[in-house]
Amino acid sequence: MERKKSIRHFRDLEVYRRAFDAAMQVFEVTKKFPPEERFSMVDQIRRSSRSVCANLAEGWRKRRYLAVFKNKITDSMQEASETQCWLEFCLACRYIKQDVFDKLDNEYEQLIAMLNSMEMNAEKFCY
User: Fold this and answer.
1) Among positive and negative, which fits the CA dihedral 21, 22, 27, 28?
2) Is the pTM for the entire model greater than 0.85?
3) Which among 16, 21, 26, 71 has a CA at the least distance from the CA of 48?
4) What ranges do the domains of the chain cover?
5) At what angle do helices 66-92 and 43-61 cross, to 10 degrees?
């Protein structure tokens, strides 16, 4: 029987690692966007995708306080949803292809589900 690895740091959370990877994919994809989008779409989607991780990290350090932890997890979900919205604009403007959109959009749906589960079971993470 395999022992479960204990979670000591936010980087040990699968949801954090996946959100980080997704944010890096967003970064790579947006490198090819036109210069006129640099300060609008590129900045916004990079910010929201990175904020999923940042809010999760902040919440992890605040898990002594259940309400604060839940709030930060909710903020992470909101940032993931914002990223999905920006991805839709990227697709509509033809800066990304449908397959790239589908892959990233699906990943953010899964991240939101994982974060929602964390929020619903916050007592398991807090002390």
Assistant:
1) positive
2) yes
3) 26
4) 13-122
5) 160
CATH number of 13-122: 1.20.1440.60
Closest C-alpha among 105, 39, 37, 48 to residue 78: 48
pLDDT tens digit sequence for 57-101: 999 999 999 999 999 999 999 999 999 999 999 999 999 999 999
CA 41 to chain centre: 17
CA atoms within 13 A on the CB side of 119: 19
Distance of CA 13 to the CA centre of its chain: 12
Can you read off the two tokens belonging to residue 56? 């999760």
